Amino acid sequence: MIRHECGYEEPAYCKKCGRPLEYTERRGIYCPNCGHRVTILCPHCGKRW
Ligand SMILES: [Zn+2]
Ligand SMILES: [Zn+2]
């Protein structure tokens, strides 16, 4: 599960390796396994995740 700053949570998986993604404010959404980074908009508040 990744959790946005607005409180919204959703399960997200890496498209490259299938591992669960993680989120930190510094790095954004990234895969701890292969290092792939993802930028999406939060479907709850509409801001950049
Ligand atoms: Zn990955
Ligand atoms: Zn949000």
Description:
There is one protein chain. Strands 3-4-5 form a 3-stranded antiparallel sheet, with no helix packed on it. A two-stranded antiparallel ribbon has the order 1-2. The chain contains no helices and 5 strands. The model has no long low-confidence stretch (mean pLDDT 95). It is globular. With 49 residues, it is an all-beta fold. The protein has one domain. The site of one zinc ion (ZN) has 7 residues, from loops. This is DNA helicase PriA. InterPro entries: RPABC4/Spt4.
End-to-end distance: 13 Å
Bound compounds, each kind once, are: zinc ion
Number of helices, where a helix is a run of at least 4 consecutive DSSP H or I residues: 0
- What order do the strands of the largest sheet run in, or round the barrel if closed? 3-4-5
